[in-house]
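Section handout 9: paired folding examples.
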Amino acid sequence: MTTIAAMGTYLPAWGTDRVRVAGPDEDAVTLAVSAGRAALRAADPALVRRVVLVTRDLPLLEGGNGAAVLAGLGLALDVAVTEQVGGAPAVLDALVDAVPGTLVLAADLVPAGAAAALVAVEGDAGVTLAGRVVRSLPVRARAQDGVLHDYDDPRLVRDRGVGVAVDALDLPAKPDVVAGVPARQAAALCAGRPPALPTTGAGSALFALAAVAGLAPRSLVLAVEQGSATAVTLDGEPAVVRDEPDPRPEPAATRTPGPEISISLPAYERAFEPKLRWEAGRCRACGTPAFPPRLRCLGCGSEDGWDAAALPRTGEVYSAVTVHVPVPGLPTPYSLAIVALDGVGVRALVKVTGAPAGTAGIGDRGRLVLRRVAVRSGVPDYGYAFLPDAACVPETEQREAGR
């Protein structure tokens, strides 16, 4: 049995109650990091010794995404990272086979969402393998040429894929929730009315576990994809932290064609750790913070170097501006904010995310979240953006506050 210490879920702010849409500055890495950080609010990050990321939307197939995941989660450089292409059954397989100290992340782009589960020695819930069958039915396939082949045969998937896989499992009862398939098909496989899941990909398996947590002493969860299936039983109620703002329509934006800004790998490498770990330099001579670190301290003029100092991830808008001028590679309009970070003498210039352009004003409070700043020469460039607190408040509460 695998013991779950904590779970976290994340949904982007854009979309509808049924389907969420990733923002223009989000990808599988930023979604997974958001879900992982939610899970680690209910557990000690020092417990994590391995990270497993399962998704069908890896930003980099070569070059690796692990460093960005570790930096975004604030984990040490010696934590092992496994990147796996897979769907809902692969996530449950990774979970039941995980050793204590493993953080399992699962992310999807269409529909968008991510979830995480931390495996530990102690926890309030356990997951046990109830059955597994691995078959091949490549109705939707993508090979090394990168071309997606979609044969779009729902009857074949239902009868020769899902149906045969479920029969082969020979489960003792109908599942309480099914991940990896559309809601109508899931309902036909379940004993009662299953909870709605926001995704149908890798993340749906962990969303399913989180959805049934606490509903019954024991729940049967089934994950299906094309011809394969994995079933687990969940005993107990894990701690679940949800980062799921109310959905809102995606704002209109204009994308301007034009030449991209090419990447400078030396500059990318120098800035990677402080930028993604959200760290300032602290002067070794006088302690003055600087973000980013400079050659010479502006406080005392020393060139003796800097020590890394973690920056707060909360603050308020000191100044803001909205850019309407078309910029190649960036959707416009967009807002920039100078954010005064809490408790330190540092102000950071960042983009505003999760809110329509022009809505963030002076004095607005919020938090800094990992986002994809740009894609330069095919390389995702990550950094932090300001997410206003108002963007995370349910619309009903916003209306009450405005009266």
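Moving on to protein 2 of 2.
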Amino acid sequence: MGEESAIVIDGPAGVGKSTIAKALARKLGYTYVDTGAMYRTVTLFALEKGIPIDGDHQEELLGTIEGEAFAFVFVGDDLQVRFGPRDLSQAIRSPEVTGRVSQVAALPLVRQGLRRRQREIAQKHKVVMEGRDIGTVVLPRARHKFFLTAAPGERARRRYQELRAQGRQVEYAQICREIEKRDQLDSTREHDPLRQAEDAVLVDTTTLDAAAVVDLVIQKLK
């Protein structure tokens, strides 16, 4: 356990981080940690409580996740994201949350507060942790770092298929625009922008399915 034993999966939106990280965690018997879900939780609670998402309300936003713990629990083939007793798996994936989460993720005090929680989890468990700044900021001493990438059009196609499989009525062109906007926001934000760690292994997943990526990562781990 501890930061050094962590397996880090970073990369932009729609690249398949969650799919790969979950598969790795199950294969290796590690704890899976979706840091993006933590930012989405703050976003959801802000929307539910009517808290403005801006720099003047950062302490109030961070206060929405005081007193309870995050848990990422496999139930059969599905993953539940829990905060205390509440299952947030579906609520944090709503279009409303998706449209605002980048604003929450750009707030430095919120990032600091969630970073502490992420590090605490890594100290207590062997983790596969995925996000956008795990290898560069959250767990920089991790021995095993991977940065996933894929062509924007392919990432949009994957996200489109995922949302359609959930029964959501979406347009491919809209998903492309959202991917481009998210990339721009994540890579240019002032605090902890999306970038590849210098010691991370770059994996282009454009032409690879999930199983092939998992096999490649496991080979690198060995």
